[in-house]
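input
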Amino acid sequence: MNNTFNRSGLFAFILFIVWPFYSVINAIRNFRSSWSKNIVWVFIIFYGYTFVVSSSELDANRYRDKFIQVAKTQITAQNFTAVFFDKNSQNLDIIEPLIIFSLSRLTNNWHLLFVSFGLIFGYFYSRNIWYLVERMGDRVSATNMLLIFVFSLIVGFWLINGFRFWTATHMFFFGAIPFLVEKKTKNLWVAVLAIFMHFSFLIPVAIFIFYVLLGNRVSIYFYFFVATFFISSLNLSAINEIVIAYIPDVFHSRVNSYVNQDYYDGIKELDSKLNWYVILYGNLFKWVFNILLIIIYVSKKEYFKSNRSLFSLFNFCLLLFGCSNLFGLVPSGGRFENLAELFTISFFLFYLRFFFDDHLIKKAFQFAMPIFIFFCVINIRIAFDTIGLATLISNPISSLFFENDSALIQFIK
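output
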């Protein structure tokens, strides 16, 4: 048996060298194999190398320009400290500057920067997906597979475009989910480390600590979750003053840059330029989560209280989703909804494992399936903004000869 696994794993990695994209398809087909998650990981590293910066508005454009500039600059340890950790600096996240600084001492090839992004993001991304796959049970259904696919798209691998926040998202999930489901503490340090990837993860870490201290208080969390539906706006000035009063001085300029009316107006202007289907799918997706959580609370909360792991995850989902509903009213705060959706999709998957024969839940998920499929289609379309032909048809050797690759979206428009 081991020899069979070794041969299939060796074949999978040879296939990756020849044609990375097809090797991912092969890994998905063999998702129960131990090597499959590593194929997805190395593919994301490869994607990082072939990443297409298709627009000046992408965060990746700023990462690329910053890296090239730093590579040309003589930086000492003192300079590095002054640039990245000065009291008035806008960049207080430690990990990304360290990556750029270290790599820029070796090369000025910005593609290798995105290789390092893919290496780090891809590790947590692949492990999080297979955490769910490995606990899905023997019963595989179309619903289960769709939920896994939805999970993989909520914070998809193309979001290395916004490396800091989205990597922090997967890091936090990687650290927190084993504790919630299995009471394992060994990965919790990774959830805390997410703060040093993106400072805003002080908030999810604080929410997690609050949950651990308060415990499972399902009714409190549920009514808080429902109450957040009816809050349509927040006073940004008041929020700014409250936050500033309780955080260290070093974070003040960063908070001011996010929580102010001018930034809010700028975000609203950008949102007004979005295609109608992007706005629609976001609203539909959010409300499907809300409705499913309400149905499960009303109809089944007493039934799965005996399953402590499932019940704990449900409690945390209600708390985190309620908080994310509030954060969505603050500029850029809507990104925390993606974090809440990762945990909630995980809960749905585990819930269906134990209550797959419940008629009401079956009907609810049948209603949700078209919206989940719509979500998948839109996110694949978004991925086309940074996936190029080289990602699909080249390999680690031939990709070296691809110059000025175009994003797939250019061939569709």
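quick obs: Residues 193 and 323 are 21 Å apart (CA to CA).
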